[in-house]
Amino acid sequence: MIPRLLTQRRFAPFFWTQALGAFNDNVFKNVLLLLLTFVAVPRYGWDTGLLNNLAAGLFILPFLLFSAWGGLLADRLDKRRLVRRLKVLELVTMSMAAAAVWYEAYAVLLALLFMMGTQSALFGPVKYAILPQHLSPTELVKGNAWVSLGTFLSILLGTLLAGVLASLEGDWARGSIAATLVVLALLGLIASLWVPSAPPTQAGATPWRPWRGGREVLRDAWHQPQVFRALLGISLFWFLGACYLTQMPAWTRDVVHGDEAVVSALLGAFALGVGAGALLCARLSAGRLEVGLIPAGAMLFGLAGLDLGLSQPLAGSETGLAALSLSPGFWRQILDFAVIGLGGGLYIVPLYTLIQLESDDDNRARMIAANNILNALFMVLAAGFGVVMLSVIGASLNTFMLALSAVSLTLAVIILCMVPRPALRLSIFVLIRVLYRLRFRGRQAVPARGAALVVCNHVSFMDALILGGGCPRPLRFLMDRPIYESRWLNWFFRIAGAIPVDSERCDPGGVRRALDEVSHALRQGEVVMLFPEGRLTTDGEMQRFRRGVDIILARDPVPVVPAGLAGLWGSWTSNRDGKALTKWPRRFRARVALHFGDPIPVGEAKRADMERRVVELKRKAEAEIGVTAD
Questions:
Q1: Where are the membrane-spanning stretches (predicted)?
Q2: pLDDT tens, 299-309?
């Protein structure tokens, strides 16, 4: 079945435009490198290392020079118009490249590589800045996932096609390469004709200031800490990715002892892993930004890199793909590269989405431009890191891979320390998915941004975990202080942001302090979850709401999201057949349903109305899973 976004004009034409562009980029770059290495160097006696580094520099340099200007263009012009102009530039560049290939003008091809890099640098800011104008906030993660999948598959297919084209001989090779470059550019231009309009949010001149513009966009990004941290996170991914991809041929030669086909197999595993990770991210996110996937992805590709670094050489001499496919060690390395890519997909998609959501409409493209500048700088750092580790220090490739793993795992730990709650919420979600057969309805009712109060019926001690895992945003929730101060679980409750509350009998001021903490959370734009009944149900039916919810809303009027929970009555954490937690568990993987209702607007929530809505949602949840509160 074709995904819905890929059948709609607001996304599909742009998807194919950028995918064909990435495909053409990689066909051109890899064909050029192969022609220089196997034709120009033997013919003219040029230095291979110098040519390869020159080619890499000519492609990266435009990202440093022109990304800021591209961001300014994308913010000041209709993005559809800009995309079409850039595709015309690509067609002109590839037509010139086709002529240069035919006449074997290799110096001209190097100059055109710089021109192609310029086109890519100008297209980069449009690539992600246009999506928020055509997709809703709940579709952004899925859109970014498909863009990432298209990009990495284009890298893989472009690399493979370049090898096939370069392996041809004589006029067939030159003609096939020339025709491919022009046809791909033409197809991309045709696809761009169907891209919908994306008008700018501000007008103004676009002065030619490449260096000054670069400093300005980086300074603007620095003044938005959350966005800048996301930019650094993405750049670290490209640092690690560049390190892995640059050393893949040497790894294949010296550790795997394979040929060119083995390099393609390892590259394919990595690229497919990134694509699968991106789609898995979209699946797990369920339409919302899931920040908890970022450290999970970093941890995943760190652990896979660790296993890769501990790998032993597979064969004593160069071996083909067919022979290596019989070796379990080779499939282990294929799996390692695939998992590295999978972790990368989980890691990078939420970061791109974070930039899109947190950037202002009038400078979003410039934030993407700042990202491209930082990416280019970190890729240069990756090259320097490889030279220092492998040439200056003389480390082995295994040690190099272990160093990359250490960077990845350190990054995961730093992110976990900086934002522990999203990762904890994701862990809770996985846990409750294992323990219960869950059905969620209406999760989009929880506002994507800003403060909100979620009210729900209280059936068992697992309710908070179910709501915390099912809600698309991290929740703050109230709980009894004796439980909060539990010796073994206090650390968990602190990270989760639980708000302890004492009974008025034990501490007359405890309730007031808890309400103050709730007010503080709401004023910080957080979501607070509340069980207005104040205690577990004793008969499966919902009890009357207490006045605490009215006090909270009187102090801080916010939208109220009602929720109804069913399926936990009768569990060992409920009060059925005895006090909760005093019975042995009798059920595993019980069916549980959680329904969220439409939010009640600010100032309109009344206790009786909230109670009625929660009762209705509870009954709908019970009907869905076929249980009652008998």
A1: 27-45, 51-74, 86-103, 109-131, 143-166, 172-195, 227-249, 261-282, 289-310, 330-352, 373-394
A2: 999 999 999 99
